[in-house]
Amino acid sequence: MLKLLLITLGIVGISVLFLCIKMLLKPGSKFGSTHIGGSKAMRDRGIHCVQSMDAIERRQKVHAKERIDKK
């Protein structure tokens, strides 16, 4: 049982090392954006993350309400 645990921890440790190798060797590097809005293909299609879409909708409602109030 202990042998299996050590092997598993070793494999996970090596995997994490390989995933972070760019960050460890190149100063100033960081992981890329994992949000939908960070993808150029998604931006070209007009697809945004839920938080961005919510913020856009809220701004539009505020501006619409201001226009109605001014009439």
Architecture overview:
The chain has helices spanning 2-25, 40-45, 50-70. The model has no long low-confidence stretch (mean pLDDT 81). It has one domain. The N and C termini lie far apart (76 Å). The chain has 71 residues and is mostly helical.
List keywords for this structure.
71 residues, elongated
What characteristic shape results from the CA principal axes? elongated
Strand content: under 5%
Main sheet makeup:
none
Number of strands: 0
| Rg, nearest Å | 23 Å
Structure in a nutshell:
The chain has 71 residues and is mainly alpha-helical. The chain has helices at residues 2-25, 40-45, 50-70.
Describe the SSE topology.
Blueprint: H1 2-25, H2 40-45, H3 50-70
